[in-house]
Amino acid sequence: MSTIHELGRALKTRRTEMGLTQAQVASLAGLSRQTINEVETGAVADLGLNKAERLASALGLGLQVVDGRVTSPPRRRLAPLARAAATASVSYRKPITAARLTKILATGMLPTAYEPHLHALLDDAPVSLLAGVVDQLREELRVERGEIWANYRELARQVKSLRDIWQ
After folding, report:
1. Contact (CB, 8 A) for 35 and 44
2. Going by fewer Cβ within 10 Å, which terminus of the chain is more open, N or C?
3. From the record, what ranges are coiled-coil (predicted)?
4. Between 3 and 120, the higher pLDDT residue
């Protein structure tokens, strides 16, 4: 499978999970809806690296160059939920725990005390971090990715987030 086809499949999967239309993704990435459609269907002959990166980044995906050499294992990084909880808590005296954040994101039910935390997370966190949280919840709780993205959208509505991705 060619790289452009692989990118198109990944983009369509993520877009669908997030509940976004091609037009919404086009707006987020600064591209036309037709370009999004062509990438997703594999009809585009050449997208260009800058456009591909903008498109992937808009949905929290990344592009990676792999040289095939054996390297040392990657450094262990803080789990996405823990990083998301830290991001949501950065300006608040009482932090939100990863366990509390998990419960909120898995259920879509937001206690009033944590509204500012969720507002900060949903407005400021990189989409790639939010996507990592979705993947972690999928793995740990067996909750469908689309359900978590739907909960994100509902929580964003509750906290009146103005971020383009939630509109």
Report:
1. yes
2. N
3. none
4. 120
Segment 5-49, tens digit of pLDDT: 888 999 999 999 999 999 999 999 999 999 999 999 988 878 888
Nearest to 152 by CA among 41, 24, 133, 30: 133
Q: How far is CA 47 from the centre of its chain?
A: 22
- Domain ranges for the chain, please list them: 3-58, 80-166
pLDDT digits (tens, 9 = 90+) for 76-133: 567 999 999 999 998 888 999 999 999 999 999 999 999 999 999 999 999 999 999 9
Query: Tokens standing for 156?
Result: 């964003």
Cα dihedral value 11, 16, 18, 24, nearest 10: 80
Contact 69, 37 (CB under 8 A): no
Distance between first and last Cα of the chain: 33
The mean pLDDT of 134-146, rounded to a whole number, is 94
Run of H or E including 129: helix 127-141
Question: Could you tell me the two tokens for 87?
Answer: 């991001």
The reported pLDDT for the residue numbered 27 is 94
Looking only at Cα atoms, what is the longest distance across the chain? 52
User: Any idea what DSSP says for residue 93?
Assistant: S
Tally Cβ neighbours within 10 Å of residue 151.
20
